[in-house]
Amino acid sequence: MGHPLERNIPPLIDNIEPAVRRAMAKQLTVRGYAIIPYVIEENVWQSVEDLFMKSPAVRNLLKSGAVKVVGALYDVGTGRIEWLPVSEVDAILKRVKSSPAKEVNPLAP
Question: Among 50, 55, 58, 80, which is least packed by CB within 10 angstroms?
């Protein structure tokens, strides 16, 4: 970046960086600011994955049918909501269920 960062910036960026990397890997011909819409969508999927990986309680609620997790894009300028495919949420949940890295204890240490 070329200059020191305020201490609160790295934790904010850490959550977005995996989404940026995935968007760039999937959209090889997209450059510059044009990648931003793809990064935004990947950030939604990253957030869903993080939720599933870190919350056994949410996974249990999903399994029981008590809740449903959906992905969406909200345009603050227009108020428009674009609902993302539920099939992707299901695919993420399936991957997380088989991951040995997922949290299994629903209570905080």
Answer: 80
pLDDT tens for each residue of 68-103: 999 999 999 999 999 999 999 999 999 999 999 999
List, for residues 19-73, the tens digit of each pLDDT value.
Answer: 999 999 999 999 999 999 999 999 999 999 999 999 999 999 999 999 999 999 9
Residue 2 identity: G
Residue 92 to residue 72: CA distance in whole angstroms: 15
Contact indicator for 69, 89 with CB cutoff of 8 Å: yes
Round to whole Å and give the CA distance between 38 and 76: 17
> Which neighbouring-strand residues pair with 74?
81
